[in-house]
Design goal:
The protein has about 160 residues and is an alpha+beta fold. It has helices at about 55-70, 70-85, 105-115, and strands at about 20-30, 35-40, 120, 125, 130, 145-150.
Length: about 160
């Protein structure tokens, strides 16, 4: 038998083309409008083994949903959203609060941060950072992706 050379029909891509950095938005309906109540970013490096992509991304989403679906989280989550509902009635920031340190929805923000950053199964702590509620996702960079989780109806 003669050997034939194999010519691949696909094009080799040097770096991964899927996102390796993520912005996680938790949104809820407050005062009749959906708005972000917590935002966490998880920047990665395209060649980093601990970057959230593939099954670790699905696992992070599963952790976040599990945290918010837990019945014991419903009361503090609703309290956070009710507080946000009261705050949204006035357009001025509350006097005396430093919004760079104090989160408007502290329980929801902490829950999202824990869901993104801490993987108890694998024993990993991933890079994750709380972001201001005014953070805007721009899809102009191939390295960034977005995850949106709506917690309006937890039941």
């Amino acid at each position: 038998m003669s050997s034939t050379s194999f010519t691949p029909y696909w094009r080799h891509i040097r770096e991964p083309t899927e996102p390796y950095s993520w912005v996680f938005f938790v949104v809820a309906k407050i005062a009749g409008h959906h708005r972000p109540v917590a935002i966490v970013s998880s920047p990665g490096i395209s060649s980093d083994e601990e970057t959230i992509r593939g099954s670790p991304l699905v696992a992070a989403c599963h952790r976040i949903i599990t945290i918010f679906r837990n019945k014991t989280a419903h009361v503090p989550s609703r309290t956070d959203r009710a507080t946000g509902n009261n705050n949204s009635s006035s357009n001025s920031p509350k006097e005396g609060l430093d919004h760079t340190v104090v989160r408007e929805f502290p329980f929801i923000s902490a829950s999202l941060l824990q869901g993104v950053a801490f993987d108890a199964v694998e024993g990993l702590t991933l890079n994750a950072y709380p972001e201001p509620l005014g953070t805007v996702y721009r899809d102009t960079l191939i390295g960034w992706g977005m995850v949106v989780i709506d917690i309006t109806d937890l039941d």
